[in-house]
Structures are given as structure tokens and as C-alpha cells.
Amino acid sequence: MASSSLAAGPSLGDLLLGRTRAARAARVELARRSLAYLLTTILAVMFATPFFWMVSSSLKSLSDLAEYPPRLLPSVFLWSNYPEALRAAPFGLYFLNTIKITALGMLGQIISGSLVAYGFARLRFKGSNFWFMVLLSTMMLPHQVTLIPQCLLFRELGWLNTIAPLVVPAYFGTPFYIFLLRQFFMTIPKELDEAAIVDGAGRFGIYWQIILPLSRPILTTIVAFSFIAHWNDFFGPLIYLTDPKSMTVAVVLLTFKNDTQTLFQLLMAASTIALIPVVIVFFLAQRYFVSSITMTGLKEG
Predict the structure, then answer these.
(1) Is 162 left (phi over 0), alpha (psi -120 to 50) or beta?
(2) Cα-flanking dihedrals φ and ψ of residue 262, to 5°?
(3) pLDDT (0 to 100) of residue 178
(4) Which of 20-29, 163-172, 253-262, 280-289 has the lowest mean pLDDT?
(5) How far apart are CA 138 and CA 159, in angstroms?
(6) What is the mean pLDDT of the chain?
(7) With helix as H, strand as E and coil as C, how does the chain read?
(8) What pLDDT was estimated at residue 12?
(9) How far apart (Å, rounded) are the C-alpha atoms in residues 123 and 263?
(10) How far apart are the first and last CA of the chain?
(11) Is the pLDDT of residue 40 over 80?
(12) Rounded CA separation 102/232 (Å)
């Protein structure tokens, strides 16, 4: 009898209990996912509202902008605000200036950041962890603390009113980017380095032929971050550039504001135009963000 009852399998009560638990777990998972989607939607709306308001304001007239309470959508869509904003300032020249500074800055941060990160991640030397902590500690220094000494240094070098103060510092490394790159490099198995050394590769060959090709996600992320930072930089060009022909897009937006009035509709149109490259770069690189940032913490130094 005992053997026949064992062969019969679980009882009806056990089956019902298992189904009840599975249904309860499914309801909990559904509630958790629903809450997560709800919070994500609320945050997305909060972050997208300023962008939507900027685009909406760029299509309004001055009378619509002066209304209270504010009008969500313009009474008449004035698409003419965009060509009028482009005619108000030579945006083509300013875009070229911004692209040149951004491209040179990105290149410098990728080269310097990847080389320094490779040294900290793959080369073991005395005090490597200590010097890495010293590097990270520089992130706690506010930019305003070093602004005056840097400005005096650049003046002595004769770099004022040139793009050198905006580009050259990028070739000396950015601590945050070095940290991200170093943590990602440490997730790459060191057996690949050993195999390459056996095949006769040097340290630079390993860096160039193995580490960089395998680091495309984090490199894409750094490129996106660097592009956004240089493209939106307002403080640097405002201080170091004095020639109007050398100005960048972020600084030129000030021309829509003077002592008597501010042309808000043209300012919003110009701001929307200036933001388009940033939006394009973000959407092209967004699929690399999560994977690269997540992998930076998989292995401790």
C-alpha cells in the first residue's frame, strides 16, 4: 500500500496549494512590474516636460508667451520662428566652431582616458591603488576652485581667445571617464593578455588590438557623455573666447537677450536647433549605456 501511494504522486491538496502559490507569485510580479512601469512613466513625463515646453514655446507668438495661465500649445503654430532665429545670428559658423571644439575634446578624452585606465587596470605597479584613489579624489574639487589658476596659466601661455583652453585639458584625462574605463577594462579576462604576449604582442598591441575592440560599449558611452559636455559647455567659451567669430552655439544663445527685451520665441527656437545634435547622439548611443555602466562594477580593483 505504501509503495502504491508513493507512485500515485502528489495529492490534490498539494496541487491546489502549488497552483495557489504560483498564482500569488504571478500577482505579486504583475504588481511589481506595474509599479515599476508607473514610476518610470512618471519620471519620463517629468524629464520630458521641459523639452516639450521649449518646443511648444518656440512655435508661439509673444502674445501667447505672455498669457497667464500659460497656454500649453500655441494658438497658431509659427514655424517662421525657426528661420527667423537662424537669420538672427550666423548659426552655420557657430555650429562649425562647436563641432571643431567638441570633436577635438572627445578625441582627447578617449585617448588619454583609455591609456590611463589601461595602465591602472592591466599594469601592476607599486602604489597603483593609492594613485588611483588620488586620481578619483580630484573629482571632489569644484571647477570654480581651479578656474582662476587655470585662467592665469592659459594667459601666460598665450592661449586666451583660442580654442586651446577648451581642448588641451581633455588630453590630460578626465577622472570620471578614467574610472568608468578602468572598471570596464577589468572585466576583460586577463587570459587574453597572456595569450597575446605568447604570440609576441606588446603592451600597446594588447591595448590597441584587444582591449579597445572589446570595449566598444563603454567607449560609445564616453563619446556620448563627452559630446554632450562639450556641446553644451557655456562657461568655458564665455571666459576664454572673446572674438565673436570664435563663439560656440551655447554662448550665442545670449544674443537673443538684451537690456530691453528677450525674444523668448526666437531663443526657444534657437535652443531647440542647438539641442538636436545632442538628442541624436543620445538615441544612437542609448543601447550601450546600461550594459557599459552596469559592467563597470562587476569587478573590484
Answers:
(1) beta
(2) -125, 120
(3) 94
(4) 253-262
(5) 24
(6) 85
(7) CHHHHHHCCCCHHHHHHHHHHHHHHHHHHHHHHHHHHHHHHHHHHHHHHHHHHHHHHHCCCHHHHCCCCCCCCCCCCCCCHHHHHHHHCCHHHHHHHHHHHHHHHHHHHHHHHHHHHHHHHHCCCCCHHHHHHHHHHHHHCCHHHHHHHHHHHHHHHCCCCCCHHHHHHHHHCCHHHHHHHHHHHCCCCCHHHHHHHHCCCCHHHHHHHHHHHHCHHHHHHHHHHHHHHHHCCCHHHHHHCCCHHHCCHHHHHHHHECCCCECHHHHHHHHHHHHHHHHHHHHHHHHHHHHHHHHCCCCCC
(8) 63
(9) 56
(10) 62
(11) yes
(12) 9
Residues constituting the chain? 301
What lies within 8 Å, CB to CB, of 275 at 6+ separation is 51, 54
pLDDT digits (tens, 9 = 90+) for 89-128: 788 889 999 999 999 999 999 999 999 999 999 888 888 8
- The per-residue pLDDT for range 167-220, each reduced to its tens digit, is 999 999 899 999 999 999 998 888 888 888 888 888 899 999 999 999 988 999
Q: Identify the bridge partners of residue 262 per DSSP, sorted by sequence position.
A: 257
* Exposed / middle / buried, residue 294 (Cβ in 10 Å: 0-12, 13-18, 19+): exposed
**Measured between alpha carbons, how far is 229 from 210 in angstroms, rounded to an integer?**
28
Whether residue 70 has pLDDT greater than 50: yes
- Which residue from 17, 178, 188, 33 is spatially nearest to 108, judged by alpha carbons? 178
Taking the model in full, what pTM does it have? 0.80
Query: Chain centroid to CA 40: how far?
Result: 19
Q: Which three cell numbers stand for residue 83?
A: 528661420
